[in-house]
């Protein structure tokens, strides 16, 4: 689960991390009010969407009057912001974050990720902040510093100093860097985050002095931990998530939209992945990933069909069930119920195996509905690709 930049900044602030003073606004008037409240002579108006690349796409504007804050907020709110991370349809800007503009001296990159090979949270830093970390990794890999954190002892001061020194932070900024890194690591651990990205972490001028400040922050939290992260769940913005994915999760279905035309209804995530592979192997493109899970009732199967069919690209549906906890007869009844209530017009290719398979096949055969049955996954995938090609 992702959160907005302003939520990430508020979270970091509660852990003692320096962020510019600012506020969220849902309208141009509110944006102007926020700017007045925080004071100063320059502000940054930032579109709040769950995607990066806003700067280049016009979603981050530095302005120097309250009137400009208002105009900029008005121009942003309600528009579809398209960045290289949103896809061509973009994301609707429902709110902006207005903050006091910072005088940036230098931008750094700071991130925490879970490195799956070492199974540890790893700190990543670079002196080349403000740009895509992927680009730095590709073009200047030597500019990326990593430090693996032992979960038993946590992030130690010496590790922070090592990383800070490697990116060129020194003097009075050093203790700030240590404090900041440790605070973000604490957020990761306390809140079950999978990823934290501060880009840029900036050295900003404060009068004659300078200070480290988080200018942009992204967090991703582990969905499997949300049951114990009530405060994080409250930050969820469903408008930023695929509406069908949200609806599916409400029905206990695990649905992920893809861009092909073969709808998939499968039980078990592994079998669902294998089904996508089989379709691809035969030259087809799946329209979705859908795991109906164990104990799929007829209602659940009907809901699955409905959600899959809401995608106008779907030209046929591949149903692949290997029933262990599930029962093929229940799946068959669910498919018939779905056909009757949804008036399905696309062909349904059905492969059933496992518990009560004979009964399941008999129910489908005797239904009088035109199911296309397949003996195995390979045949089912081949058949669906043949159908969408025809
Ligand atoms: P992103 O493009 O979605 O990652 O949005 P960012 O929040 O990272 O903003 C992009 C760029 O805008 C940053 O790298 C900064 O150079 C600039 N920027 C962001 N906040 C400020 C600010 O307070 N003052 C100034 N002058 N520039 C800023
Ligand atoms: Mn950024």
Automatic annotation (TrEMBL):
Q: Name one GO cellular component term.
A: succinate-CoA ligase complex
Q: Which residues bind substrate?
A: 267
To which pathway does this protein belong? Carbohydrate metabolism; tricarboxylic acid cycle; succinate from succinyl-CoA (ligase route): step 1/1
Gene3D superfamilies, alphabetized? ATP-grasp fold, A domain (3.30.1490.20), ATP-grasp fold, B domain (3.30.470.20), Succinyl-CoA synthetase domains (3.40.50.261)
- Listed binding positions for ATP are 46, 53-55, 99, 102, 107
Q: Does the keyword Nucleotide-binding apply?
A: yes
Q: Tell me the GO molecular function terms.
A: ATP binding; magnesium ion binding; succinate-CoA ligase (ADP-forming) activity; succinate-CoA ligase (GDP-forming) activity
Q: What class of enzyme is it?
A: ligase
Question: What's the EC number here?
Answer: 6.2.1.5
Identify the residues that bind Mg(2+).
Answer: 199, 216
Q: Which cofactor does it need?
A: Mg(2+)
Reactions catalysed: GTP + succinate + CoA = succinyl-CoA + GDP + phosphate; succinate + ATP + CoA = succinyl-CoA + ADP + phosphate
Q: Which GO terms describe its biological process?
A: succinyl-CoA metabolic process; tricarboxylic acid cycle
Could you tell me the keywords of this UniProt record? ATP-binding, Ligase, Magnesium, Metal-binding, Nucleotide-binding, Tricarboxylic acid cycle
Which InterPro entries does the UniProt record give? Answer: ATP-grasp, ATP-grasp_succ-CoA_synth-type, ATP_grasp_subdomain_1, Succ-CoA_synthase_bsu_CS, SUCC_ACL_C, Succ_CoA_ligase-like_bsu, Succinyl-CoA_synth-like
Please list the residue ranges annotated as the ATP-grasp domain.
9-247
User: How is the cofactor bound, as the UniProt entry phrases it?
Assistant: Binds 1 Mg(2+) ion per subunit.
Q: PANTHER family annotated for this entry?
A: SUCCINATE--COA LIGASE [GDP-FORMING] SUBUNIT BETA, MITOCHONDRIAL (PTHR11815:SF10), SUCCINYL-COA SYNTHETASE BETA CHAIN (PTHR11815)
The entry's family comment says: Belongs to the succinate/malate CoA ligase beta subunit family.
Assembly: Heterotetramer of two alpha and two beta subunits.
Q: What does this protein do?
A: Succinyl-CoA synthetase functions in the citric acid cycle (TCA), coupling the hydrolysis of succinyl-CoA to the synthesis of either ATP or GTP and thus represents the only step of substrate-level phosphorylation in the TCA. The beta subunit provides nucleotide specificity of the enzyme and binds the substrate succinate, while the binding sites for coenzyme A and phosphate are found in the alpha subunit.
Q: What's the protein called, per UniProt?
A: Succinate--CoA ligase [ADP-forming] subunit beta
Instruction: Tell me which species this is from.
Output: Candidatus Methylospira mobilis
